[in-house]
Design brief:
alpha/beta; globular; single chain; 6-stranded parallel beta sheet
């Protein structure tokens, strides 16, 4: 009798586990395309004569590989030719950032021969610089890049009040968590003189391994900028990034794209609201949470990657209000890119 009861219990446990494994589950991917890590590449000192490689090499090399980058402009050094190039780079999917008007030091340093700036200089180094970018490109820079990564709390708080989306003012040689923290304190790592170019790949791979967001800071290539590298070394890095993206390991995006995704993710919830007799999801609902988003004009889109895991056949189509939803099946998961402004997702088998 005891053996019979034991077998019945074991059978019930196995049956329950099997039933549980068939239940469809849905979640919002930590990063777009359900990549394991995210990577942003920032090139400082756009507009400076010594960093001409940003315009002459970097734009073409990244655009040809469909890899978006950010470029931080020293607005006081940009002439009309630079602004024309900036607009072309923006059209290529790259993002312009504010790197001040004059590239002075935000804190006094013994080594700094460029001069210093502080609160009295905010109207020029922040406000006028922002206005120049807007006037010449039609884009708000959204993010502020402090020269030499020297800043104060007063500077960061001023940017918050000016409705920026964020700043590179966090910790050096640190990754950013996949969960949205303070975008005004973004962590980063800087490529330095004498550092092997293999370190570029290693930092991107570290983001994948730790399921985090890496922000890599560089300057120019084939020019006289600080810590410049050759075009061949840069191509090696870009090709490595391409392979990681093609293998669904990495999502490479601008600062605004990553932070926008994180904001939308943190202010959304997703649930299966209808199933068929086979237990397959036929309707998924996106619900906005009661949370405040930053200035809508600075957000780049309203889409999220939704991941559905379930047994059985693949949907023939997925729609939102008759609009087709792009999706793929990978590693037993249905991965779809949805519009968060359209709340109902319908799956047809």
């Amino acid at each position: 009798m005891k053996n019979t009861l034991l077998l019945l219990c074991l059978y019930s446990v196995v049956s329950f586990a099997q039933a549980q494994s068939k239940i469809a589950q849905v979640y919002i991917a930590p990063f777009r395309h359900d990549a394991e890590g995210a990577y942003t590449l920032i090139h400082d000192d756009f507009g400076a004569q010594y960093a001409r490689g940003i315009e002459e090499y970097i734009d073409t090399m990244t655009y040809n590989r469909k890899l978006p980058i950010c470029f931080a402009a020293i607005t006081g050094e940009c002439d009309q030719e630079d602004w024309t190039k900036a607009k072309a780079m923006i059209a290529h999917g790259h993002q312009i950032l504010n790197h001040t008007m004059s590239h002075k030091c935000g804190q006094p340093q013994n080594w700094c021969t460029f001069g210093n700036w502080d609160e009295k200089d905010f109207p020029t180094e922040i406000d006028k610089s922002t206005e120049l970018i807007w006037k010449n490109t039609g884009k708000h820079p959204a993010f502020f890049i402090f020269p030499f990564d020297l800043s104060t709390d007063t500077m960061v708080n001023y940017l918050r009040a000016k409705h920026y989306l964020g700043a590179r003012a966090g910790k050096v040689n640190m990754l950013n968590d996949k969960k949205l923290n303070d975008p005004f304190l973004l962590n980063y790592t800087v490529f330095r003189p004498g550092e092997p170019h293999t370190a570029l790949n290693e930092f991107a791979d570290k983001a994948i391994q730790s399921k985090s967001w890496a922000i890599r800071v560089m300057h120019g290539i084939e020019d006289e900028s600080w810590a410049h590298i050759t075009a061949e070394e840069y191509a090696t890095h870009l090709n490595h990034l391409q392979r990681q993206i093609q293998n669904h390991k990495l999502w490479m995006a601008t600062l605004s794209d990553v932070v926008t995704y994180q904001y939308i993710k943190e202010t959304s919830d997703v649930a299966i609201t209808d199933e068929n007799k086979k237990g397959q999801a036929t309707q998924i609902t996106l619900e906005p949470l009661n949370a405040k988003l930053p200035d809508e004009k600075l957000l780049t889109n309203h889409s999220l990657t939704i991941v559905l895991t379930q047994t059985g056949s693949t949907p023939k189509s997925i729609t939102q209000e008759t609009q087709a939803v792009p999706f793929e099946v990978r590693d037993g998961k249905i991965i779809m890119e949805v519009n968060t402004l359209l709340h109902e997702i319908v799956l047809t088998y």
